[in-house]
Every structure is written in structure tokens, then in C-alpha cells.
Amino acid sequence: MSTLAHVFEAAGLATVVLSSVLEMAQKCEPPRALHGEFPLGRPLGKPLDALFQRDVLDRALALLDAPSGPVLEVYPVEIVADETPLACALPPRFDPDVPPAVDEARGIRKAYDRSVTARGTTSVSRKISADEVPDMLSKLYRILDGDAWDELGFPDDDVRSVAQDIRTYYEEAALEMADGPPPEGRQVEAWFFERTEAGALILAARQKMKEVKAPFPQWFYMAPGQRGRITS
Amino acid sequence: MAEDRQTGDQMMRAHAATLPVPVFEHAAFVTPPILRQATVAIVTSAALHCADDEGFSAGDTSFRAIQREQKNLVLGHWSPNFDRTGVVLDLNVVFPIDRLEEMANEGVIGAVAPTHYSFAGNQPDDVATLRYDTGPTVAQALRAEGVDVVILTPV
Q1: Of A41, A44, A171, the CB nearest to B82
Q2: A228 conformational bin, left if phi > 0, alpha if psi -120 to 50, beta if neither
Q3: Is A13 within a domain?
Q4: Which of A10, A59, A130, A216 lies at a 20 to 30 A Cα distance from A229?
Q5: Could you tell me the residue range of the domain that residue A197 belongs to?
């Protein structure tokens, strides 16, 4: 973002960056930046809080009054991401003849569909559709069984993207299943990796792919860096 | 969180702080028109795109245009290392288009730009394409539509 700010200013546009990494803004020195120490992925701070978002924007646009730059200010309110798993009950085991994650994924399909209806869109789109989630989970089990990850028929052998789509499927469903206030940053991530069969399966498959020396980006980016204890 | 370890955001911020940044020896500083007369656009690195558009790939250096009235956007960013649910709950937490519309209606800003833009945040470390190709291309397009001020939102 700071690079783009410099490029845009050189072209005659005034810019304001909503910074999310303070050290980066300090090093790159965009002409104007308001740093928000907010959960990564939420540069306006709080979803569904128009007043808070408006205050962030007002303070950011006020930097346009500065006669010279670079100008870097820090938003006065800090929001720390909460890694406590979201309280979100999963459906009970339904079909004992299929692996747990496959059963689980089928069980939350209606909640996922409600999310798509409510929001008019889905981000389950990198490599697979929602219909393919159970089959892809079956393939992840086969990685644990020792089958070659690049011979299982993942689209473009892109296990990383499939893992992202599976996570997104679960996260969008969770927002329909959970009660209470909007989840804090990373609460749904924590729920997925610590409470669901699919999340545990992805972490186990990731470990297995590392052990069989799959390319680093393919296994590492299947989950956030801090998730799971990757051992050599 | 039972384990004594870095949180995801701590880990990512510490990593990002080590990344190289390009040097701009002659940084420009544009003085915009007064805000109530300025046309404002959003440019985000969240890899947002319309469902009908081509998705972003890993390390993608291209961009997508987002028309002012488009709200049902897909989050195409490839990194697993940030919260993805905030933008599902409320697009404005990344792409504050409704806030801009309110500010235009109140006369705080002059106008909302007709077209906004999205890049992928996980660019190659040298950001050469962004700096010399796609960035200037988007800047020209924004200027051509009368934009004065750009708000840049990261992911």
C-alpha cells in the first residue's frame, strides 16, 4: 500500500494509507498514513460498526490538511485479535460410514447455503466449489494414509488453495451457525483449526506433506503460520 | 489460546517488519483540493473482485476494477494469515464504500469515484510490477475519472 501511495502521488493523486504494520509505514514513509493497530484483515477496525469506521476515515482524511509529509499518526484505540475459539456447535455425527470430516462438512452445508443467500456471494472459489468440499476432505485423508499428494487429483495439484477453500466454506457457515455478537478477529480461525475435524485434518495433512518434502508453499500456506506444531 | 506462543497477528507483523521496502528518493506530496470538493476512491490490497472476474493467483501482480455500486465481492487474497471473517460480515471493514457514500451525502467529500481498484497484497518482494506497471496504470485510470484523493486499505 505504501508503494502504491508513492506511485499515485507521483501521478498527481493525494493519498492516505490505512497502515496495518507500523514498522513498514515507518520504513516506506508514504506521504500520509494512519496506523491502526487492529486485527489483520480489518483495516477499518470493527465490522458492523459504522461509527467506528467513520472515525477511522475522518482521522485519516484529516491528514490531508498537513502542509507537508510524510505524516504518520497512530489511531488512539488498539484492538487485539482474539484467538479464543468461537462458540459454535457443530452438528452431531450423522453417517458413521464416512470419515468424520466428510460427515461434518456435509452437516454444515445448509448453514453455508444460508450464508451465500444472505450475502449474495461466497469466497469459496479459488480452486473448488462447495459441492467439492467433502471429496477434497477425503483426498486429504489419503495423504495421511501415505498416498502421494500430487497423484490424488487435487485441481492443479494445488492443495494449498483447496485447504483455503475448505476453511472459507467452514468460516462462512460458522457465521450463520453461531449466536452472539460478531466474532472478533481470528475467533473463527481458532474455531476451525481447534474445534473442527476438517481443521485438524488440514493441519495433519500439512505435517505429512512437509515430511514427504512437498514444495514449501504447498504445505506451509495450508494454514496460518502460528497454527500447528510443524516438526521436521 | 492455551499455548504460550506468538499470536497470528504478532507473527505476521514481526515478519512484515523484516520485508524489504522500495526506496523513493524524490517522494511526491500532492496537495488535494479541499475535501468537500474532492472525488475520493478506494484502492485495496485485499484482492477483492467480482464473482464474474478472473480470480487472483498466488503472487498476482494484476488488478481488478470495482464499480461503485458493486457490493457482492469475493475475497481473493491467498494468504491464510489474517482474519477473513470481518469482511464477510461487513465489506466496509476493508472496503469502506458505504462510509464514503454517507460522507458524500453529508457533503464532507465532494464525490465518490465511479471506479475503485483492488490488488493482491502478497506481491513479489521487489514490487517492481506494482511500481512501474500496474500502479501507474491504475493511477492514470483514476486521474482520467477525476479522482483527487485515494484511500489505500491493506490486507
Answers
A1: A41
A2: left
A3: yes
A4: A130
A5: 100-220
CB B36 within 8 A of CB B145: no
Closest by Cα among A116, A115, A114, A94 to A105 = A94
Query: Which amino acid would we find at residue A179?
Result: D
Given a cut of 90, whether residue B125 has pLDDT beyond it is no
Which residues on chain B are in Cβ contact (under 8 Å) with A182? 89
Decide if A77 touches B, using CB distance below 8 A.
no
Q: Which of B43, B85, B98 would you mutate first to test chain A, the one with the most A CBs within 10 A?
A: B85
Rounded Cα–Cα distance for residues B49 and B81 (Å): 19
Domain limits for position B61: 33-153
- Contact at 8 Å (CB) between A31 and B28? yes
pLDDT at A229: 62
In a domain, A7, yes or no: yes
Note whether B104 contacts A: Cβ–Cβ < 8 A: no
Nearest beta carbon to residue B16 from set A4, A24, A125 = A24
Q: Could you tell me if A116 lies within 8 Å of chain B, comparing CB atoms? A: no
Q: Is A24 on the interface with B (CB under 8 A)?
A: yes
Contact B21 A3 (CB under 8 A): yes
Does the residue B129 lie in any domain? Answer: yes
Q: What is the mean pLDDT of chain A?
A: 96
pTM to 2 decimals?
0.94
What whole-number percentage of chain A has pLDDT above 90?
94
pLDDT, mean of residues B78-82: 91
- What pLDDT shows up at residue A231? 57
The tally of domains found in chain B comes to 1
Identity of the residue numbered B64: R
Residue B109 in this model has a pLDDT that exceeds 70: yes
- Quote the pLDDT of residue B2: 45
Asked if A14 is an interface residue toward chain B (Cβ–Cβ < 8 A), one would say yes
- Judged by a CB distance cut-off of 8 A, whether residue A43 touches chain B is yes
> How many domains are there within chain A?
2
Flag whether the ipTM exceeds 0.90: yes
A228 DSSP 8-state letter: S
